[in-house]
Here is the input.
Amino acid sequence: MSVVLVAGFMTLLDVSIVNVALPSIRGNLALSSAELQWVLSGYALTFGLLLVPAGRFGDARGRRNAFIAGLAVFTLASAAAGLATGALWLIVARLVQGAAAGVVNPQVSGLIQQLFEPAERGRPFGLLGATIGVSTAVGPLLGGLLIQVFGTAEGWRWIFYINLPIGIVAILLGAKWIPGRSPQAREREPLDPVGVVLLGVGVVALLLPLVQEQQWKGSAKWLLVVAAVAILAGFVAWERRFARRGTSLIDLSLFGVRSYGLGALVGLFYFGGFTSIFFTFTLLLQSGLHYSALEAGLAVTPFALGSAAAAAVGGRIVNRYGRPLVVAGLVLVGLGLGGTELALHLVPGRGAGFATALPLLVAGIGSGLVISPNQTLTLAEVPVRRAGSAGAVLQTGQRIGTAVGIAAVGAVFFNRLAHHGGDWERAFQASLWVTIGFVVVALVAAVVDVVGGARSPDRGGRAGDQEREGDRQEQGHR
Here is the structure.
């Protein structure tokens, strides 16, 4: 668990740690705005592209080898990014980094499903939730600290170099400690290459206009979203056909289980709001209020601390309280973000970082009660043999939610910034309401699951029966 969580932390950290380093990278390598956007969003694009195929591969061929291979490529790509001398070099390294992260992450949730009985998974998923929350929130702080220590010219390179010793140690310990191929994996099971291609093309067509929303002017880019919908519809039709003669890439019947379908929806919309906070708040602090990279990182630390503490607690108590715990967390997030809006209104200017500390702490506590409990509850009824691909679908939804959220919130932010003549605080306050809107939609989905659970005591259905049978088989192998 320690090995896979450290690796998961490292790959998720690289989503947010680069944010505070963008000014330094631009100044050192003379990147254009479009090239800078690709450094940031290219990672997210290839990350989301590989999640489901890699999860499916780990299910069928063994998770340890997939984990170690992905981690090795990620470590090498980090070294290449740190050594970059130009825009193309850095962009390619970031694309490879993201693809490798997409291979590593589904193995993490898959191994938790494989190594722990259903009643035992709350705590490890709590640790995973803390890892997700802290890695996203602490990225700006760690990035700012490295730039402060090594200087603006070289500090951004250490953002990538820091992955090297961690990656090497994790590879060595992973080879020693992570168990080999699961007894339930089937060596000759077909991997559905047509489904992989259809899903990959569909995901890229969906994410590309979102991550390039600020760079590609005009409305023609949104035709890719229409194409993505058509391709993904074809993917669903193919999966239904393939399932009659083999194991499909995604088990579509899982979406018929309320806990999985609504839990995935909670993750989709919550990540749409959760990650966009740091995107716009960092812009406000650094570009609008002229905070240093370190000061901007310190300003979001209360969220990280609250998220880490609450996620660890949430993982322990999720089996006792169930989905109402997620509802309570989402309410706290909404209150915290509303408090952030009020704090910025009452204490404008350079004091914003101090004024928002308490409401961001409240929002962080709520976030910790959302991410890990939702992950635990959503995957609770998934058969162990499909744990990697099911977890990957959940994470793909989170990556899509992140891209949609940043595109929507960023569009409002920059539109208000131009409309108000460069008033960064008013632009952030306007965009914050969009963030709160995403959280409210996630709250509605969680409430629907709570109400449905009260009406229907049998939450498992066919997938739950499969899980219980899979657990009996796994216990027999143990």
